[in-house]
Every structure is written in C-alpha cells, then in structure tokens.
Design goal:
By secondary structure, the protein is of the alpha/beta class. The chain is 20% helix and 21% strand. The chain has an eight-stranded mixed sheet with strand order 1-3-4-5-2-6-8-7. It is globular and about 50 Å long. The relative contact order is 0.18.
Length: 225
C-alpha cells in the first residue's frame, strides 16, 4: 500500500528540456532479523520517529536486550516495552512507509491500541491565535474523540507526513484505534525544559522511564561573570 499518486502532464510540450525518465522502482528484499511474528501478548503498539524523540527514547526507555526483531533496510527496530507494549523505532527512509505498513499489518491488526510519535520543526507550526510558542508543543490526531483530552487536536492547515501519519491513515481506513502525537520543537539541544513535555507523554503511555540513565544538557544561564 503506497499512499499518494504522481500526476504527469498529458503532453511532453509541458515538460522542460531537462526532464529525465526515472528508473522503475524495484522493491528491495525485506529480510527480518529476530522473531518477527506478532507476539501473543501484544496489546499496545507504539511507533517512534524523529531524531530528537528517538534520542530521548534511546536514553530513557529502550534497552538493546529487549530488541525483538529488526528490518535493517528500513531502519525498523521493534522492542519489547513490557506488559504487552511494543515499541517500533524508525530511522531510515530507503523504502516507502506504505511498504512498512504492509510488513506490519499483522502487528497493527492484533494491537488493541496504536500510538505514534513524530516530530516537526517548531517554525512549521501554524496558528495565528498563538502569539508566543513554547519550546516544545504537542498536538494530536486520533480516531478516538476522547483519547488523551489534555492534548489539543492538530489544527488546519498544519500537515504531517511520515510513518506515523501513514499508521494513522491505515487505522482510519481499517477501523483501528490509533492516536498520532506531533511534537513541535526548535533546533535547541535537548535539555530538562524542552524534553519535559515529551517525558510526560511517555509516562502517560505507561512506559518505564529511566531518568537516571540520561545526561541532558543543562539549561543555559543568563548570568555572566
């Protein structure tokens, strides 16, 4: 399942002289390492993408000993988050997210709850009524109207793309329960202030957080000697 389409001009007169034919896409061999079959205790599936969020999960939540399986060509790793929760991390973009969804259909259909966390630049967030943006802002899109009421719905005309967006789209069309959290952050290094809202969300997802294992950058001081 590949979402979207390419519409080409009906006549080559509309195409400039530098037009080049693209090579036919050949799907790479998708070989999973580890135990790929959806586990019997699977209840909650949590997708994580975006460099800063992944860095935080690596520091606070994930443990290589809990790695269940991986798909190297897609940059996909699935971890056992305990108590029926499984975490899917996504780092590459060498195959389409639609193809990843196809690979994970069994997992998606088996999960009672599906969550996804993705990140966007704070500068891309559009809201004319918001005068001053916080360092970290979280919005949601969900198939459930009353899910996580403390988080506001992502407003139009903001757009979201990536694996999390495709997971939500798949869930909408197949009747699955799914919520996508969009984390807007600026380019500042991770510190105790801009990560606090994300850590709070991770705790709300009932994941174990090891705060002692991380060394976040201290908040810059305004005092000078």
């Amino acid at each position: 399942m590949v979402f979207g389409e390419i519409v080409e001009p009906s006549t080559r007169a509309l195409i400039d002289d530098e037009y080049e034919e693209y090579r036919e896409y050949i799907k790479p061999e998708l070989k999973w390492e580890g135990t790929f079959k959806a586990p019997p205790d699977l209840d909650t599936l949590i997708f994580v993408e975006g460099s800063k969020i992944l860095k935080l999960f690596d520091a606070l939540v994930l443990n290589k000993r809990d790695l269940v399986c991986m798909l190297k060509v897609a940059g996909i790793e699935i971890f056992n988050g305990k108590n029926g929760k499984y975490i899917v991390t996504y780092t590459k973009q060498e195959i389409t997210t639609g193809e990843i969804i196809e690979e994970l259909v069994e997992w998606l259909r088996k999960a009672a709850h599906i969550y996804a966390l993705t990140s966007e630049s704070a500068a891309s967030y559009q809201n004319l009524q918001m005068i001053e943006k916080p360092e970290t802002l979280i919005r949601k899109l969900s198939t459930e109207s009353n899910c996580f009421p403390n988080y506001k719905k992502l407003e139009s005309p903001n757009l979201v793309s990536g694996l999390g967006a495709d997971v939500l789209s798949f869930s909408i069309h197949t009747g699955l329960k799914s919520t996508l959290f969009v984390v807007y952050m600026d380019n500042s290094p991770l510190d105790s202030i801009n990560t606090s809202p994300i850590i709070q969300l991770i705790k709300l997802l009932d994941l174990n957080v090891n705060l002692s294992s991380t060394n976040l950058n201290p908040v810059p001081s305004n005092l000078y000697l």
